[in-house]
Structures are given as C-alpha cells and as structure tokens.
C-alpha cells in the first residue's frame, strides 16, 4: 500500500510536508507489514503441511485396513479353494458310488419289472375269477328270484293265496336287489306293482277270520232258538172229541207243517249244524278257499234265522258273519306273470350279449 501511494503523483505541497516527516517511522511501518506477511505465510505453510501430513496418515491407515481386508479375503479364498477341492473329491467319490449303485440296481429293476408283469397277470387272473364268481352268484340270485316269482304266481292261481304270493314276490325282490346289475331295476318295478296289486286284493286277515269263527263256534251252545209257534186257538169244547184229543195229547201230537226243517225243532241238532258250518268256513279260510268259506258262512247266516234275534249273542254272531261275508267278497283277479316274463327276456338278452364277444376275442388276439 505505501508503494502504491508513492507511485501516484503528488502535489508540491504534499511533497514538502512529506519531506519534512522523520524518516525512521516509515521504515518501521514497512518492516512490520513484511513481518505480518511472513507470519501469515508461515502459518499457511504450517497448515498446509499439517493437512498434507494428516491426509498421508489417513491414506496410510486406509491402506493398512485395505491390506488387512485383502489378507482376510485371501484367507477366505484359500479356505474356499480347499473346500471346493474337497467337495470335488467327494463329488467324484459320490459319482463312483452312484455308478456302482446303478450297476447294482439295474438287475433289481429288471427283476422288479418281471415281478410287476407277474403281478399284473395275477391281478387279471383274479379279476377274471372274481367276475366268474360274481357272475355265478348273480346267476344263483336270478334263479332264486325266478323260482320265487313262479311259486307266487302258481300259489295265487291254485289257492288264491294273495298273502302267500305277495310274500314270495317280496323275497324275489330281495334276491333281485342283491344282484350286481342295474339292468334289473325295471323288473323290480314291475314286481313291486304286481305285489301291490296282490296286497290290495287279498281277503280278510286269515288269523282274524279264523279267530272270529273259533269264538262263534264256542258260543253256539248259548244261542237260544226261536220260540215255537203258538197252537191254534180253539174254543173250549167239552164235547167227546175234545176229551179224546186231550187224552191222546200226551201220546200223539198233531201240528200244522209250516216248512220248518227238523233242525228247527231240535235245539241240539240245529246248534251242531251251525257249528259244522262254522268249522267248514274255518277250514276253508285255512286252506285259502275263499269261495268255500263264503258258501259256508252264507249257510251259517241262513241257519241264524232259526235262533232268537233278541239274544245279544245271536245278534253279535249275525253281525260277525255279515262282516266276514263282506270281507270275503270276490275281488277282481290279479294278472300276474309280467315281471316273470320280463326277467326271463332280460336274462336271455344278457346271455346272448355275453356269448357274442367270445369268437371275436379268440380270433382277434395274435398268437
């Protein structure tokens, strides 16, 4: 700054004043500024040297750490290399073992393949045997069902036993239900329809009717006959003829014939005849002879006219006989045989279907 001021032009007045200043003061100022600049530069140099030294120390430390990391990485790499070498040796050993196992397993595979072939052959043989056994079992069941249907039809045709025929049809339905073939479901529906018709047309309950007739037979002995017709009223005649008739009254009795059989006058014989008719009706019911039972009951109803209607036992007997006759009224006959014919036709069709593939199977397979 003093130099720059000294270079500028000054006026004569100022120069004169400066020339009049004492010279030692100017020299002191210039020396102080130089010393300050020197100290500043020294301080800057010292700071720069410290920074450079600090940076070098940092770089040395980082280099040492890097060398330590590199050493650790080298150690890990060496460990990995040793591990890979050991693993490679183990892999080679494992490959050798696998090859030896493959060579040992190959015969076992061939043997297992042969065993599987034999097992399949055995399964096929067992399946064929099971099919034959199942077919034989179904055949037996179908034969049983056909026999039961035929038995029920004949029992109804010969004895009019609707209950027995319905029981046979129920057993036939159970046999068809055990057959392992859904094609016979139509036969079962036809069978169920015929069985329902039999149950709807059956007469009165056999046990109830027989028990009722048994009670009537036991109570016949208590039924009183109707009182005899009163004798014709005659006037009191004291003549000779009146005395003669009165004398002969204890020996000979003459009455008007009103068409009443002898049984009407004989209590024991009348009751025995009614009991016989009741027994015949009971036997006819046990034999499933509905017409015979109805005829015997009609005779019993006619014979009940000889007994006293005022008696409660006779009234109960008349009501029971009337109820039995109503229950034994002939019903329209049931047409049977449809289910049996359908079963036979279906079995014939199945037999043809089973016999048809046999020639094709024998000629189509190569030797």
UniProtKB/TrEMBL annotation:
<keyword id="KW-0472">Membrane</keyword>
<dbReference type="Pfam" id="PF04375">
    <property type="entry name" value="HemX"/>
</dbReference>
<feature type="compositionally biased region" description="Low complexity">
    <location>
        <begin position="1"/>
        <end position="19"/>
    </location>
</feature>
<feature type="region of interest" description="Disordered">
    <location>
        <begin position="1"/>
        <end position="29"/>
    </location>
</feature>
<dbReference type="InterPro" id="IPR007470">
    <property type="entry name" value="HemX"/>
</dbReference>
<keyword id="KW-0812">Transmembrane</keyword>
<protein>
    <submittedName>
        <fullName>Distant homolog of E. coli HemX protein in Xanthomonadaceae</fullName>
    </submittedName>
</protein>
<keyword id="KW-1133">Transmembrane helix</keyword>
<feature type="transmembrane region" description="Helical">
    <location>
        <begin position="35"/>
        <end position="54"/>
    </location>
</feature>
């Amino acid at each position: 700054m003093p130099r720059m001021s000294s270079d500028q032009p000054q006026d004569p007045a100022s120069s004169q004043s400066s020339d009049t200043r004492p010279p030692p003061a100017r020299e002191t100022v210039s020396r102080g500024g130089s010393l300050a600049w020197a100290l500043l530069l020294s301080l800057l140099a010292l700071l720069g040297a410290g920074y450079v030294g600090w940076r070098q120390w940092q770089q040395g430390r980082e280099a040492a750490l890097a060398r330590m990391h590199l050493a650790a990485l080298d150690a890990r790499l060496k460990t990995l290399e040793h591990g890979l070498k050991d693993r490679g040796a183990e892999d080679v050993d494992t490959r050798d073992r696998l090859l030896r196992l493959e060579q040992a397993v190959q015969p076992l595979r061939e043997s297992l393949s042969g065993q599987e072939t034999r097992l399949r052959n055995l399964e096929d043989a067992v399946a064929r045997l099971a099919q034959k056994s199942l077919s034989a079992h179904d055949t037996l069941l179908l034969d049983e069902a056909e026999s039961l249907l035929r038995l029920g039809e004949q029992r109804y045709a010969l004895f009019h036993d609707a209950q027995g025929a319905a029981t046979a049809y129920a057993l036939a339905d159970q046999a068809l239900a055990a057959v392992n073939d859904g094609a016979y479901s139509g036969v079962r529906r036809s069978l169920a329809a015929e069985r329902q018709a039999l149950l709807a047309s059956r007469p009165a309950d056999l046990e109830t009717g027989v028990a009722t007739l048994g009670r009537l037979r036991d109570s016949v002995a208590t039924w009183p006959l109707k009182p005899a017709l009163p004798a014709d009223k005659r006037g009191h005649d004291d003549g000779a003829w009146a005395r003669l008739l009165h004398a002969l009254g204890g020996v000979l009795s003459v009455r008007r014939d009103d068409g009443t059989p002898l049984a009407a006058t004989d209590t024991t014989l009348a009751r025995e005849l009614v009991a016989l008719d009741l027994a015949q009706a009971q036997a006819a019911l046990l034999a499933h002879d509905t017409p015979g039972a109805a005829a015997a009951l009609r005779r019993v109803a006619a014979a009940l006219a000889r007994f006293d209607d005022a008696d409660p036992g006779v009234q109960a007997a008349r009501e029971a006989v009337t109820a039995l006759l109503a229950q034994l009224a002939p019903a329209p006959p049931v047409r049977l045989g449809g289910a049996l014919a359908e079963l036979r036709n279906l079995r014939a069709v199945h037999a043809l279907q089973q016999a048809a593939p046999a020639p094709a199977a024998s000629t189509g397979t190569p030797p």
